[in-house]
Specification:
With about 400 residues, this protein is α/β, with parallel strands linked by helices. It contains 7 helices and 18 strands. The chain has 3 domains: about 240 residues, FAD/NAD(P)-binding domain (3-Layer(bba) Sandwich), CATH 3.50.50.60; about 55 residues, no CATH class; about 90 residues, D-Amino Acid Oxidase, Chain A, domain 2. A hairpin with a 4-residue loop joins strand 10 and strand 11. It is globular, with a radius of gyration of 21 Å.
C-alpha cells in the first residue's frame, strides 16, 4: 500500500495541499498539473522559470538519446515524446505563449571510420528497440544538410526526434501556473519540516514556515542540499555541468540547418539545434565540477572547435551568448519520481539530460500520485526508493 492518502488535508492543518520546492520546468509542470486537479498548490523558488531550462537546448530526442542499458528509461522517454504535441497545444492555449515546438527531426553523423562504426552499432541498438531511424551515406547526409563538412562518412536520420525552446516552455509554464491559481513564495527553502515522522512543509531562508499536506522536492541538482532530510530518504542527485553557446543565423545564411545535427567528435558529444527565430544552440559539455557554473575559455573553444569540424561555416555566425548550467544527474541517469521513505515527501528530480523531454510525463505522473497515491505504470520503475538509504553526495 502507498504511504500517501488520496484524502486532501483540511485547511486547518495545512494551508497548501501541495508544496513544490523548485520552480524549474519540472517543478512548474508538477504545480500546474496539481492545480488542475483542484489541489491548493504553491511553489517555493526565488526565481521561478529560471534554472537549467535557461541553458538546455530542448532536444526531444528519445531516439538519438538512447544509450546502452537504458531500455527502461527509453519507454518513459517515448511515452513523454508521444504526449508532447497535445501537451504543447494545451500549454499554448493555457498560457498564450508560443513554445517554439518543431517536429524537424535529428541527423546524427559520423566524421571518420571509427565514428561510422560506432554509429552503425547505435543504429542496430535502435532497431532492436523498435525505433525508427534510417541509415544514410555521407552524400545523402550532405544532400539533407548542405552545410555539413565534406568528410562526413554517414549518418542516422531520426524524424521522430523533435525540439522545443526550453526558455519559452518555462515562461509558458509559469504563466499557466499563475492562471491556475498556484501561489509563489519567492525565497529559498532552507529546511524540510518533519512533524510526527511525516513531511509537513519547509522553512524559508527568511524564517517563514510553510506547511503542506504533501511536499514535492523538484529542485533539480540542488534537491539534495535541502537540510532536514532524514537519513532514510534517498536523494542521490548530483550536478553535471554543461556549457552551451548561442549563435545567430543572419538572414543571408538562412536556411543554415533544417534539423538538429549531432555527432561525436574526439569522444565528446556535440549538437547544433536551429531555432525558427534564427538562433542556433551549440552544446554541450559534460563536466563533473560540483556546483560551479563558470563559463570557461576551454569549454567555449572545445564546442566551437568540434562544431566547426561538423559544420565549417559556423565560424561565420555571430556569437551572442555563452552560458553554463547544471543537469541533475542520478546514479542510473534516470529520474526519481514519486513517494520517498518519508510519508508525504515526494521527489521529482534527477532527470539529467532528459528533463525537457520528460516534462509532460512527469507532470502527469506527479499529478496522479498526488491525487490517488499511486504512480502510473510507466513511472513505477523510477521510484526514489530504488536507491534505498540516502547516499553521500560528492560536491
Amino acid at each position: 500500500m502507498s504511504q500517501l492518502s488520496s484524502k486532501v488535508p483540511s485547511t486547518a492543518t495545512a494551508p497548501h495541499d501541495v508544496l513544490v520546492v523548485g520552480g524549474g520546468i519540472i517543478g512548474l509542470v508538477t504545480a500546474w498539473r496539481s492545480a488542475q486537479q483542484g489541489l491548493r498548490t504553491a511553489v517555493v523558488d526565488p526565481a521561478p522559470g529560471r534554472g537549467a531550462a535557461q541553458v538546455a537546448a530542448g532536444m526531444l530526442a528519445a531516439v538519438t538519446e538512447l544509450h546502452y542499458g537504458e531500455e527502461t528509461l527509453l519507454a518513459l522517454n517515448l511515452a513523454s515524446a508521444d504526449r508532447y504535441p497535445s501537451f504543447a497545444e494545451e500549454l499554448t492555449e493555457a498560457s498564450g505563449e508560443d513554445l517554439g515546438y518543431r517536429s524537424c527531426g535529428t541527423l546524427s553523423v559520423a566524421l571518420d571510420a571509427d565514428d561510422r562504426a560506432h554509429l552503425r552499432e547505435v543504429h542496430a541498438l535502435q532497431q532492436r528497440a523498435g525505433l525508427a531511424s534510417e541509415w544514410l551515406s555521407g552524400r545523402e547526409c550532405r544532400r539533407l544538410e548542405p552545410m555539413l563538412a565534406p568528410g562526413v562518412r554517414g549518418g542516422l536520420r531520426a524524424d521522430d526526434d523533435h525540439q522545443i525552446d526550453p526558455r519559452r516552455l518555462a515562461k509558458a509554464l509559469l504563466i499557466a501556473c499563475e492562471r491556475a491559481g498556484v501561489t509563489f513564495h519567492r525565497e529559498w527553502a532552507a529546511r524540510l519540516s518533519v512533524i510526527r515522522d511525516r513531511a509537513a512543509g519547509v522553512a524559508l531562508t527568511d524564517g517563514t514556515e510553510l506547511t503542506a499536506g504533501r511536499t514535492v522536492l523538484a529542485g533539480g541538482s540542488h534537491t539534495a542540499l535541502l537540510t532536514g532530510l532524514p537519513e532514510e530518504v534517498a536523494v542521490p542527485v548530483r550536478p553535471v555541468k554543461g556549457q552551451v553557446l548561442r549563435l545567430r543565423i543572419p538572414d543571408a545564411y538562412a536556411p543554415f540547418l533544417q534539423r538538429t545535427v549531432r555527432a561525436v567528435v574526439r569522444g565528446s558529444d556535440v549538437y547544433l539545434v536551429p531555432r525558427e527565430n534564427g538562433e542556433l544552440v551549440v552544446g554541450a559539455t559534460s563536466e563533473e565540477q560540483g556546483y560551479d557554473t563558470t563559463v570557461t575559455a576551454g569549454g567555449v573553444y572545445e564546442l566551437l572547435r568540434d562544431a566547426h569540424e561538423l559544420i565549417p561555416g559556423i565560424t561565420e555566425l555571430p556569437l551572442v551568448e555563452t552560458i553554463a548550467g547544471l543537469r541533475p544527474g542520478s546514479p542510473d541517469n534516470a529520474p526519481l519520481l514519486g513517494p520517498t521513505a518519508l510519508p508525504d515527501l515526494l521527489l521529482a528530480t534527477g532527470h539529467h539530460r532528459n528533463g525537457v523531454l520528460l516534462t509532460p510525463v512527469t507532470g502527469d505522473a506527479m499529478a496522479q500520485v498526488l491525487t490517488t497515491g499511486e504512480l502510473p505504470e510507466a513511472a513505477r520503475p523510477f521510484t526514489p526508493k530504488r536507491f534505498g538509504a540516502r547516499q553521500e553526495q560528492t560536491v
